[in-house]
Every structure is written in structure tokens, then in C-alpha cells.
Specification:
Layout: H1 2-19, E1 29-38, E2 41-57, E3 65-81, E4 84-92, E5 103-125, E6 131-133, E7 138-157
Antiparallel strand pairs: 1-2, 1-4, 2-3, 3-7, 4-6, 4-7, 5-6, 5-7
Length: 159
Amino acid sequence: MLRTIAAATAIAAAAFASTAGPAGAQDRLQLGTLECSLSSSIGLIVGSQRNVNCVFRSGPNDPVEGYTGTLTRIGVDIGVTTGGVIVWSVFADTNRHAGMLAGTYVGGSAEASVAAGLGANALVGGSNRTVALQPLSVQGQLGLNVAAGIGQLELHPVQ
């Protein structure tokens, strides 16, 4: 199990390195946080898919935006997890506008769970690929699972 976790960590590190943007990526503004509830998951060896319900929060007086979608991982994914929560810091090189988080995000993804678990996801996409979801997100879940690969998050505004 320890070797599997080490391998997942190495794959994730390589995936995160491949999603790192150009030097100008540091010019992005932090716009708020995106908190997503995840459905339970069964790893299918080569991938998995989870439904997400998300809330974007900016400043204390700004309106809250709801999003739904799917989080898909292609790569090593073995095990079962209960639902969980991911929280990302949201960065963009433009000012905030309603619905700007809608779209497809792609990047490195990894998680490990033995009872309680943690994960990391580095994703870029959204409105004209101008939005970055914090290089490492915080993810909490319960289960027995090891996973690493390329993640894709598809978000749609709640109507």
C-alpha cells in the first residue's frame, strides 16, 4: 500500500508540473473560494467520475453563485470513497463576473484514503481559460482509495 501511495504521489507531482502555467500566471487575482460537495466514488482502475455541487463565494457582501457538474479522473484509481468536500482558491486575470466559473477545467489530480483521506487537484479553465483553481486544493473524504492522473472538472451555473 505504501508503494502505491508513493507511486500516486509521484504521478501527481508530474501532473502538477505539467499544468503549471507561464510566469505570468502569478499576475492573477484571488477572487474567492469554490467549495464543492462530491458524490461517492468507485475507482474503475483507469478512472472515475463524481457529481459535484459547488458554491462560489467572493467578498462578504458579494452574491453567492451555485454550480453543478462532474469531476472526472483518468489514470490510476482503485478503491471506494464516500462523498467528500473540495475547497479551491479561485484566481483569474480578469475581474469577477456572474457565471465566470462555468466551463471545463483540466489538470493534475491525486488522492489517497485509508479511512480518512486527502487529495490535491490543480485545474485551469473556465471563462476563456482565464480561471485557475488553486494549485493545490484541499479535499476531505472517507474510504479506501488511491488515485492519480489527469482530472477534468465541468461546471454549469445553477439556474
